[in-house]
Amino acid sequence: MKWEKLIKDFKNYLIIERNLSKNTIDSYLFDIEKLKSFLNSENLKINPLKINESIAKEFIYQISKKVKSSTQARIISGIKRFYDYIILEELIAENPFQNIETPKIGTKLPVTLTTKEIDKIINSIDFNSKNKLRNTALLEVLYSCGLRVSELITLKISDLFFKESLIKVTGKGNKERFVPISNEAKNYIDKYIIQKRRSQKIKKGHEDTLFINERGSGLSRVMIYLIISDLNKKADIKKKIGPHTFRHSFATHLLENGADLITIQNMLGHENIVTTERYLHVNKKHLLKSMSKFHPRNNM
Fold first, then answer.
1. 165 and 285 both lie in a single domain
2. Whether residues 272 and 147 fall in one domain
């Protein structure tokens, strides 16, 4: 079977049956292209069904000299998923990458901001900027609701349920969830819509998109990163931050103030509670206070 046909079928499987996001699918396809490039460089003109463990090990050895461990681990994971699909289709009996060990990667704790740092970043928005209301509103939403950047840029006006203080978020795999929104974020969204957005000319297809650029279309992921990077420099925060930092801060501050992990998991849209549990490691002082306050042995 040719590569093109199998990759196309795999992509359809990820879209239709696995219901994965475009970014995740693109990542898997990118990993497969790495394998194809290796085969071409070695002049190995074989179809994916003929790859054996020996070729798999040589491929991993070659990429290990070019990429860091985290990238290597992702590539191995992506290709394993590809061959798991081929097995599912009963085209081969064994996954040639099954016995390839993934490099051990140390757990990296997420960078978070204090409430003072978040206020400092938001206050760094130029008062005379034509996008002051929009940028303030989107930062308040990132922090208030803990959204991923992909969820922020696809947020629609019809997703706002302000009477109930909720917004509807479309997350990974097009899974929808409702997340509470703060009064501060609601106020800035209202101001942005009334004082700025209503006076803009909106491009067709973006009539319901909440955050739009000066050309009347939705913001890109890159634009959000640039906005935050610029404000971080102005605020002189000595941390490397991005949109996800506000999400991490949202979760950490909820935990510090007594929210339980299941509630935080639901609001973040994590499928696995293990993903949420990493926030337990962020603030050890909070854990020690909880231990001191709530454990029965400390009350004797």
1. yes
2. yes
Greatest Cα pair distance in the chain: 73
User: What is the number of domains present in the chain?
Assistant: 2
Extract the tokens encoding 102. Answer: 């993934």
Q: Are residue 149 and residue 274 in the same domain, yes or no?
A: yes
In the chain, the amino acid numbered 95 is N
Active site residues: 148, 172, 244, 247, 270, 279
Those residues with Cβ within 8 angstroms of residue 61's Cβ, 6 or more apart along the chain or in another chain:
none
CA-CA distances (angstroms) from residue 300 to 146, 289, 294?
Answer: 39, 16, 11
Task: Determine, yes or no, domain membership for 31.
Answer: yes
pLDDT tens digits along 120-147: 999 999 988 999 999 999 999 999 999 9
Three-class SS state of 212: strand
* pTM higher than the cut 0.85: no
Tens of pLDDT, residues 109-120: 678 899 999 999
Question: Which residues constitute the domain of residue 207?
Answer: 115-291
